[in-house]
User: What shape does this take?
Amino acid sequence: GHKEPRLLSLIERNGDFILGVLATPDVVVSGPVAQLSIPINHKFEIIREAEEALLIDFSDNPSIKIRLKGEKAPELMLELQDDERTQTFLTQVKSAQERDYAYVDSLKNTVKVEEKKNQQNRIVASREPPPIPTLPPRKASFPPSNPLPPAPIPKESSAALQARGSSVIPNTKSECSCLSLPNSTSCFDSFFIGTWNVNGQTPDSSLEPWLCCDSDPPDIYAIGFQELDLSTEAFLYMDSSKEQVWIEAVERALHKKADYKMVSKVTSQFNFKRNSQTEIGQIYQHITLVSLLFKTSSFDFVFLSVVIWLGDLNYRLFMYDASEVKRLIASNALKKLQEYDQLNIQRQTKRAFTDFMEGEINFIPTYKYDNKTDRYDSSGKCRIPAWCDRILWRGSNVQQLKYRSHMEMRTSDHKPVSSLFKIGVKVVDENRQKKVFEAIVRDMDRLENDCLPSVSLSRFEFTFKDVKFRQLQKERFVITNDGQVPCHFAFIPKPNDPNYCKPWLRAEPNKGFLEPSEALEIYLEVYVSKDSVTLLNSGQDTIYDILVLHLDRGKDYFITISGNYLSSCFGTSLETLCRIKKPVREVENLIDLGEDSDTEKEKCMNFLLVDGGSPEDKPLKIPKEVWILVNHLFTKSCDQEDLFQTPGLQEELQSIIDCLDTSIPEYLPGCNHSVAEALLIFLEALPEPVVCYELYQRCLDSSHDSRLCKQLISQLPRAHRNVFRYLVSFLKELLRHSNNNNLTASLIATLFASLLIRPPPNVASRQSSQDRQKAINFILGFLMSGDED
Assistant: This one.
């Protein structure tokens, strides 16, 4: 894309930072250019492009790409020269951004006094810079050093020069470490604290000169490594084979006079800030830290707010002549050099580690050496020696016994540093701990019981009498929160059940929330629909269920539902109905066909019997219920306007269903529309549609050919084949009266196709509009046919 030159500036106004994106003078002369002022706040983002960050650039003019996002500003892509000036400027911008995050966090939280002490790196911009005090006191075998001279830093506020490192917060507590233990005893135990930036190297010699430099074994080892693995893979995957190699090297070098086990290993990756020797800012880099904690097998303790900060903090010297620094080192003028140490200056001006202490430094700078030597950097860069590797602490009852570097370790360009501490700890009185723990458990149990939700139910058992198809019955009960806390309740499924109740049952509401003493009515509804009627008709299901009412964090309550069901011809198969010559309600489980009584009504049904059979042995050609419904419509409704389009009355529908279930009526109650809807409900409730499920796909495939359609109907079971032909003849008769009843072949085909040709349950949800149209065409072909089948 098009590139234009810009100038970047970092501006501070009353404690707030703004990034200015300005045009160069040449661009301004050639034409007007928009200039941006981007606030550095929580909406500000500065991202270095990953491709540039991970690849080595061997070009003559290496560059980096930066994406900027900010409030009320477009997203910008900047290409900057990859040099020290750019890196330090970007670090200063990042530092300003971190400062804004710290300020926002301080507004959101009321920080405790002890938590405020942990915010070592915050710059307090709202106060005037204090006068330069003497260095904080050092607990060591050496007296405090002399006060430092004024720091050679710019007048403008800059970010804290803290760098890479890790903290060891001894907080390994027993179960009751948070309790007051009057019978506990205090003692001092030894802690070996070590830090080493290994510069991506692998151990090439024993670590005993570093870890076993004292005659007596320490109780605790706390060891921190930096730059364990500098490869791209370690950065991306947070994993490195070198980590285990260094752990094994440490384990081999631990003091031989005691047995140790590793109780903690923490691996961290983050960006850190490297101090710059210019006024522009700092440089961000990536580092991997591995912190290890070992203890003797017999050591157990409770710590009291002790924090140890160790690592390659990367503070340098405010000196720019490497030869002068080396001269002062050679003359052992270490105190003179420490006056220019950036960490000391930061602590002195209360910009970092303000309440931490550090022992007297009597060892030469630990950075930067030529690898495998004791010679300071002799490369072209000629890095200025510095005390990058430091150990600081904060807390009470801490005594630093030793603070040293280990010059004999030559694996890295850093020298390892260690410190030996005596730290006061409280050892738990086991008997007292046990008593306090038991008392707490008793109190917690009592409190838990008081806080458990509890409800009372007005009823636990319900009986529904004479349940019928499509006839709703309701019962109610009252649930009352009689506990001391609010409670959530819900009806939950029993084990291995997908739903909390059977299909014919429903609780309304089935879940809710109750305040203490609040009551709520819950209705239990029993309604047998087409989805549940078949199992009830056949006796495979009964009106019986147990509801589980569950309280969140509480117990379960069980509600019993029972009742008796009255069988119906609706939801009964065509084959079964053809074998029943008396009302369905008189047959037990629809299998006791019994002897027919010689009544006039049954005599009139004899013409429905299969040809050549006796009334006692042969099934009906079609179910008597189908004949009664269709015959009523055929004789009384052919000219009925909007037949099958106007819904019936619910009371009349229930009367028609009861009439068909309990008798063989000469006529049906209700209007023609109610009888028509009853016929549709009957067909919809059939467990197997008129065109059987197994022939569904063949029916669709043959819908384009009338010959194949007739052939398929001839292959239906006898009862299904007879009902299909009987219904088609009736529907064709209705079409002959279309001038009066407003029916069309398309309308009838659309309505009855969904009832006579239903997809199997396992594919019903996948039925497409094309499949539905094919079913309509199948029925339409018979309605328009002139054959009398």
The CA atoms of residues 301 and 427 lie 5 Å apart. The domain at 455-565 is CATH 2.60.40.10 (Immunoglobulin-like).
